[in-house]
């Protein structure tokens, strides 16, 4: 028997005596107390129990459920969401199949001209793109690794001379750090231990990488150096090189190639760390704990519940088709079979509960500082220039004798979740390649490879990009994942029914909505 409670909130100590037993019985039911743990679970069950993700290796496993990926009934998609999800899968598959049917059997992309975006565009996306969670302020110099020295020199190859030359010697490195002008996306220590194993796999390669940015006077970022590193691998010695923007044709193409590697690293980091690990996987134990310990009448549960919506069902889908062995992630992203191992390593090294939310995450990365005089008690290290640049023309355009400032201000309040920008930013794969398939031509100073680069640099770039099949496969998935559901809920859209009897909450909601 299922119990439905009224919308009024009650703490355990305030619960009316007449429903205390019902509250207790409901939680016992959700915990599965009195049931056999080995009993096969049905799709209609509402039991929240802890378990391990031991079903990702592609093998058949014994299961205690009638379905291989059990999800409590209350966490399943609504009929509207489910129907839309299935339609989207079909439409995305058809959309992606058309170019495959028209293409040749060659796994490489046809030689054609791709839009090569400027440095400023790509730098802006580190703050306002898919993965704004990796960039951090440089506070120490020289840059140093924390890995075991067996992986190579601890000190970075990015020197003062390289940095100062790239910023036209407007200041020294020390001055740039003092003035908070240097920023970095540092995947060196996370990726370097996996380089040897990943390189044993066919159709992919890997480096440890660092990408350095300089904050210009107009508060826009400019990438100034990329360091790629390969550790000692069997008989091959340690190798590293710093790539910089250049007007020289050869070095310019090497710079473009270097960007492919770091963009692939960033795409992978976003997908299986920023996205899967931090917003899906790490949420599941909290969903289970909340449902096992907090009654539906508990005010904290009511606050949390909307943020849990569909997460467990989406995670089950991911385990079945995305992060499973030889699934989409392993087929289309650079670590291949080591993707989930890398995600686990990131959880061990980087994840901390008390630093996941704002503003703690921004402060930890040096992207904001505590300032009680600023709005929300924090001040951004970099002004919100992406939004400023977008709305500058709008603010200066007069319509009906008035500037559009008020409307722009309202629009600024709307922020797009990291998930929903996936197709917009990454479906065009040169902007967000997910895998780099070839080594940089100058790695082993092979004359043949370097000659190919000199003769047809575009061909070498295309060989490095994902294959046509990989690009389309990822595009289909991103299209499916980044679509808003017809029953999507938006903050401030309407008051949730569970708060209908809380007049104070309703008053605050109306203030927020206004």
SSE diagram, text form:
Layout: H1 17-31, H2 79-102, H3 119-128, E1 136-137, H4 160-166, H5 173-178, E2 182-186, H6 188-191, H7 195-198, E3 208-215, E4 221-230, E5 239-243, H8 249-280, H9 284-293, H10 299-308, H11 311-322, H12 328-332, H13 339-350, H14 360-364, E6 368-370, E7 378-380, H15 385-396, E8 398-399, E9 402-403, H16 405-412, H17 422-426, H18 447-455, H19 457-464, H20 468-481, H21 503-513
Antiparallel strand pairs: 1-2, 2-3, 3-4, 4-5, 6-7, 8-9
Helix pairs in contact: 2-20, 8-13, 8-19, 9-10, 18-19
InterPro entries: LipOase (IPR000907), LipOase_C (IPR013819), LipOase_C_sf (IPR036226), LipOase_CS (IPR020834), LipOase_Fe_BS (IPR020833), LipOase_plant (IPR001246)
Region (Disordered): 12-48
Function: Plant lipoxygenase may be involved in a number of diverse aspects of plant physiology including growth and development, pest resistance, and senescence or responses to wounding.
Describe the structure.
The protein has one domain. The two termini are 41 Å apart. α2 runs antiparallel to α20, α9 packs antiparallel against α10 and α18 crosses α19. A 5-stranded antiparallel β-sheet has the order 1-2-3-4-5, sandwiched between helices. The protein has a two-stranded antiparallel ribbon with strand order 6-7. Strands 8-9 form a two-stranded antiparallel sheet. Helix content is 43%, strand content 8%. With 514 residues, the protein is an alpha+beta fold. Its cofactor is Fe cation. Its EC number is 1.13.11.-.
């Amino acid at each position: 028997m299922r119990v439905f409670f009224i919308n009024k909130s009650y703490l355990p100590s305030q619960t009316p005596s007449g429903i205390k037993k019902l509250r207790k019985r409901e939680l016992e039911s959700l915990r599965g107390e009195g049931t056999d743990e080995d009993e096969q679970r049905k799709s209609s069950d509402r039991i929240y129990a802890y378990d391990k993700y031991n079903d990702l290796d592609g093998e058949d496993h014994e299961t205690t459920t009638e379905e291989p990926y059990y999800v409590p009934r209350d966490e399943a998609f609504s009929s509207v969401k489910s129907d839309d999800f299935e339609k989207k899968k079909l439409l995305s598959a058809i959309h992606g199949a058309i170019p495959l049917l028209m293409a040749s059997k060659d796994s490489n992309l046809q030689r054609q001209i791709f839009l090569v975006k400027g440095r400023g565009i790509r730098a802006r996306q580190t703050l306002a793109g898919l993965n704004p969670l990796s960039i951090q302020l440089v506070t120490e110099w020289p840059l140093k690794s924390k890995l075991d020295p067996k992986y190579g020199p601890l000190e970075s190859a990015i020197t003062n001379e390289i940095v100062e030359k790239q910023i036209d010697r407007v200041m020294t490195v020390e001055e740039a750090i003092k003035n908070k002008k240097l920023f970095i996306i540092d995947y060196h220590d996370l990726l370097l231990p996996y380089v040897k194993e990943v390189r044993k796999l066919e159709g992919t390669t890997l480096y440890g990488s660092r990408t350095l940015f300089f904050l210009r006077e107009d508060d826009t970022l400019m990438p100034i150096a990329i360091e790629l590193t390969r550790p000692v691998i069997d008989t091959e010695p340690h190798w590293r090189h710093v790539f910089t923007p250049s007007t020289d044709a050869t070095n310019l193409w090497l710079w473009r190639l270097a960007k492919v590697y770091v963009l692939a690293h960033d795409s992978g980091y976003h997908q299986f760390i920023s996205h899967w690990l931090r917003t899906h996987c790490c949420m599941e134990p909290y969903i289970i704990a909340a449902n096992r310990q907090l009654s539906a009448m508990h005010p904290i549960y009511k606050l949390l519940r909307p943020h849990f919506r569909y997460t467990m069902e989406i995670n089950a889908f991911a385990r079945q088709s995305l992060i499973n062995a030889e699934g989409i992630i392993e087929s289309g992203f650079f670590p291949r079979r080591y993707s989930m191992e890398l995600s686990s390593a990131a959880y061990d090294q980087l994840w901390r509960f008390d630093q996941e939310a704002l503003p703690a995450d921004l402060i930890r990365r040096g992207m904001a500082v505590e300032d009680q005089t600023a709005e929300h008690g924090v001040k951004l290290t970099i002004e919100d220039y992406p939004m400023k640049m977008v709305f500058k023309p709008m603010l200066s355009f007069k319509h009906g004798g008035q500037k559009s400032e008020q409307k722009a201000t309202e629009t600024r309040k709307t922020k797009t979740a990291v998930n929903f920008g996936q197709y917009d930013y990454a479906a065009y794969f040169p902007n967000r390649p997910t895998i780099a398939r070839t080594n940089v031509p100058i790695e082993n100073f092979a004359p043949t490879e370097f000659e190919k680069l000199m003769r047809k640099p575009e061909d070498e770039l295309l060989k490095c990009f994902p294959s046509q099949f990989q690009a389309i496969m990822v595009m289909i998935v991103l299209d499916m994942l980044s679509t808003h559901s017809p029953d999507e809920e938006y903050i401030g859209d309407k008051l949730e029914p569970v708060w209908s009897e809380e007049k104070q909450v309703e008053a605050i909601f109306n203030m927020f909505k206004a």
